[in-house]
Amino acid sequence: MAYKFTQKKKGCLLMAYLTSRSLVAALALTGVAVPAVAQEVNVYSSRHYDTDEALYDAFTEETGITVNRIEADADELIARLEAEGENSPADVLITVDAGRMARAEELDLLAAYESQTIEDRIPDHLEHPENLWYGIAQRARIIYYDKEKVENPPQTYEELADPAWEGKICIRSSSNIYNQSLMASIIETHGEEAAKEWAQGIVNNMARDPQGGDTDQLRGIVSGECEVAVGNHYYFVRGFESDVEGLSDDIDKIGWVWPNQDGRGTHVNLSTAAMLKTAPNPENAMKLMEYFTSDTAQTNLATGNHEYPAVEDAPGTATTERLGDFKADETTPTAAFSRNAAKAQELFNAVGWD
Asked: Any idea what the CATH number is for the domain that residue 105 is in?
C-alpha cells in the first residue's frame, strides 16, 4: 500500500503523536510545567488535487493550525485507521464518495459532530442523519451519447435498461463505488426488485464487458465501441480543460444528458468529511470541518476536480458552466448510498454485472 505524506513536518504522524503524548504524560507526573503543544490537525484524505493544498494553506493562515495530511485510497486509509485503533493520530477522514465513508461508519470509527455552522450551511440531504459526516463537494453521474449516431438519447437512468439500447452502452464494473451509489439510489427510489430488473437491463444492453474508469467509457464513444455511456461529469470536463488521450481531440463528438430532469433529478454523489472518534485534536478538527463550508473552501474544493459546491449559492468553478444548469436529486437522501451499498453489490452480483 502506498501513502502520500503531505504534512508540513516530515516523518511519521503516528510516531510523532505517540512521542508527544508520552512526553506530556511524563512531564505531568514529575510536576514539571508542560509546554504548549503546537496547534495542528491530522487529516487522512482520499482526495488528491493540487488545489486542496491551497485550501489547507488558507486554513492555516486564518487559524494558525497546521494541517498534516496523508493521502491514499479510502479503503487503505480505513484499514489503516482500524489497525491504529485508539493510537491513531488522525482527526478527520475525507473520502471521494459517501459509499466509502459508509465503511468507516460500519467500523464505528466516526464521531457525531455538533455544529450550527454546518447545520446552517449544508443542505439536509447532503448530511448524515446522525451527523456522522457531510458532503463538502458534489459530483453528478450523467449520461453521454454519440451525437452522430444517437438522435434521441435516453433521458433517465431508467431508460438505459430499455431493450432499444441493447449492445450500445459502456459503463464501469459493479465494484466501482460510483455505480454502487447510483444503484443504491435506485434501490431507495424504486425498491429492490425494480432495481434488480434495472441492473439486468443494463447488463443486457452492454456493448462490452465493463472495463476501465469513467474516462474509458467516454473513449468508448469516441472509438465507436458504444453509443451511450455513463460517467461522472468532471471526467468529461477534464477532456475540455486538459489534453486527455483518446478523448480531447474528438470530444465534440460527445453529447450529454442531465438525467431525470422531469422527475427526481440527476443523481449526485459527494466528497465527504467526518471527524474520527479517536481524534487527538477534536477542537481543531471541528474548526477544519466548519472551514470546509466557507465560500473560500467551497470554491477551492470545487475547482480542484471541476466539482459543484455543497453549499447552496457558494461560488463554484467556471469550468462546469459549459454543461449548463441542471436539477439535482434532492429527494433521495445521500445517506441511502451508504445504507444500501451492500444490497447494491448483492443485486449486481445476482444479475452478473462484473
From this structure: 3.40.190.10
Q: Residue 263: is it exposed, middle or buried by C-beta count within 10 angstroms (0-12/13-18/19+)?
A: middle
Is the same domain home to 57 and 146? no
Question: Is 188 in the same domain as 94?
Answer: no
* Owning domain of residue 11: 4-137+269-323
Same domain, 237 and 303: no
The pLDDT tens digits along the chain (354 residues) read 444 445 443 344 544 444 444 434 444 444 544 444 569 999 999 998 877 889 999 999 999 999 999 999 999 999 999 999 999 999 999 999 888 898 899 999 999 999 999 999 999 999 999 999 999 999 999 999 999 999 999 999 999 999 999 999 999 999 999 999 999 999 999 999 999 999 999 999 999 999 999 999 999 999 999 999 999 999 999 999 999 999 999 999 999 999 999 999 999 999 999 999 999 999 999 999 999 999 999 999 998 899 999 999 888 889 999 999 999 999 999 889 988 989 999 999 999 999
Beta strands in 254-295 (DSSP E): 254-257, 268-276
Q: Provide the b/e sequence for 84-111 (b: ≥16 CB within 10 Å).
A: beeebbbbbbbbbbbbbbbbbbeeebbb
